[in-house]
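EI: anyone free to look at a 232-residue chain?
SC: sure, send it
EI:
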Amino acid sequence: MSETDSNSGGVAEPVISVTNLVKQFGRFAALRGVTAEFFSGKLYAILGDNGAGKTTLLRTIAGLNRPNRGCVSVLGKTDIRSSCREIGYMAHPSLLYDEMSGMENLRYFAHLYGIDDNLRCERAIKAVKLDPTLSRPVGQYSQGMRQRMSLARALLNDPKILLLDEPFSNVDVRSAREMVDLLMKMRDSGKTIFVVTHQAGLLDGAADEFVMMQAGKIVSRSSDLESVQAQS
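SC: here you go
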């Protein structure tokens, strides 16, 4: 699948391509020969039942899983480690330190990226509608606040590619819509965004493409949510 570059009129190069991707955990095949291309400035909603391979696909693109067979190319490179600074990853668990405040968490992760910029941490927290001056530890946050702080952590390095695993889990509807608005703005700025979710309706009208997975394979792709659900 290719796309036309609206600026040059030529064929756009994919930001991410996966070819015959296979990932097994023991005798269980989580990915079974997945081949797909994804392009810049797009928001992709990855759908499917539990065990369909959604999280495994995300983790393999992020370089957290090594495929048994096949190839992953990110920003034209097959060595994912060389592109890791261009990737923001939000896991299903928040991966935050409960004893630290939100700002302390972000300062710590910023240090891991070699970022010494408190303003960047503050901007990331404000982007997800949280208060950077909130001093109470993250362990006392609501689940929705933890999800938003986890998204702020994924934004710290201003990544070109954002991989989000169930970002709307236990988030109230208003906050989820605010998160979707933020993701749309980032998409419009040229970022490539993947959202694994069981709440596809939140992205109806926002996602550029819905990607349905079943049993470790991509079975349908469409810009229309009802269409991709009907084909599954």
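EI: The mean pLDDT is 92.
SC: 👍
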